Amino acid sequence: MINTLALNLVADVMRWDNERATEEYAWLRLVSAMKYDGYSDFRAGARFLESLVSWLRQFDAADREAAYGFVKQRLVYISTLEMQRVIEAFVPETVTPYLRRAVACEVGIRSYEVWRSPEGAREFRRKLRRCLFVGLSDGSMIDILRRANAGRLSQEQVVPMMNVDDEKWKSLDENLKKEEGKDAQFDDVYLIDDFTASGTTFIRFPDCTPKGKLAKFERIVKDAKDRLGKDFPLSPSYTLHIHHYVSTTQARGALVERVEEADRVLANRSYGVAKVTEGMLLPDDIRVATVGGSGASVTPVRAGDDVIVDLSDRYYDHSLFKRLEKHCRETGQTDMKYGYANCALPLVLEHNTPNNSIPLLWAETDGKSGSQMHSLFLRRDRHG
Q1: Among 136, 201, 297, 379, which is least packed, fewest CB within 10 Å?
Q2: How far is residue 103 from each of residues 107, 115, 121, measured CA to CA in Å?
Q3: Is the pLDDT of residue 147 over 80?
Q4: In the chain, domain spans
Q5: Pairing, β 347-349 against β 76-78
Q6: Distance between CA atoms of 234 and 219, rounded to whole angstroms?
Q7: For the whole prediction, is pTM greater than 0.90?
Q8: How far is it, in rounded angstroms, from Cα 224 to Cα 222?
C-alpha cells in the first residue's frame, strides 16, 4: 500500500493544489509500486516516496519543479526483473549466435543450418562446453546466469569471481578433459559484469602501466599458467569476450578503443582476439549533458536538460571530487558535478546507483566543500 502520508508530504513540499496533486499521485503510486520501491537500499517505512520528500527539500522552492521534472521525465531505472531478463538473454542472444557462426565456418554450412545435421549439432555442443564464463564482480549475478542456463551450461564452466585459485583451475581442467577428451581446453573466455558507463576502468594505461580488470585477469592467468603448466585449462591464444549486461554507447566506444590499445601494448598477452559485447546498449542521448575535456564546456543533450545542468552546477559539494581525486584526474576531470568520467547519466540500477550518474541522484555529503547534498537513491560506494 502506497503511503498516503508520504504522498501528502510530497504535495506539501511541491506546493501543489488539489488538481495537480491528484494528477501526480497517480504517477507516483505507479512508479513506486512497479519500480522504485524495489531499490535495494530502501527499507520498510523509508522507500521511494519518503526519500523523494527528503530529496526535494534540499532544493530552494523555486528549483523544486525542475528537480521533480528531472525525476519524472529523465530518470532511467533498471529494475530487478529487467536486469534478470537481460541476463537470461545472454547465452541465447550473444553466445549462441557467435558459436553458430564459428561452427558454420568450420563445417562449411550456413549458420542457420547448424542444427539440421548431427555433425553441426555435435560441434555446437563441443564449442559451448569449451566456453568459460567468469564473473568480474557481485554485479555479474552468476547465480541468475546459472539458473537461467541449467541443463545448457555445466557448473564446471562457470566461476563467480576472477580470483580463481589453483585447485579451481585444476578442477575446471579435470572436468573438461573428462567430458571432452584429454586434449580439451577452453577456447573462449567470457568476462562478465553488470554495467559499464565510461569504459575507462576495464583497462587503462596511466604512466604506461596497465591497470584495470583486464590487466588483473591477465596477471591471474599468467601466474596460474606458470604454476600449473599442462593442468592449466585455457588454450593458448583463446578468444576473450568482454561482456556487460548493460553498457552506454560511450563506454562501448571507449572499450573498443582501449582493447585495441591493449592488443598493441600488452606484452605476451594470454588471449588472441578480444571481442566487446553487451546485452543492453543505452543510446548516447541518455546523458543529460556532454562535458568538455576538463568540464570547461557543458552542452545539454536534450531540450529541457539545461535546467538539470543548472541544478548540477549549483547543488554540488566538491568533497565528492576530493574523495576520488586520483581516479578522477586520470580521466581529465576537475570536479564531479556530472559523475565519474563526466558521463552525466540519469541512471539508477536496482542494486546500486553508478557514480557515473549525476551526483544529484546519489550523493550524501555534509556540505563542507559546497552544498550539503541529500540522495534520492543512496549509493553504496566501495571507496568509503
Answers
A1: 297
A2: 6, 10, 9
A3: yes
A4: 80-282, 284-384
A5: parallel
A6: 14
A7: yes
A8: 6
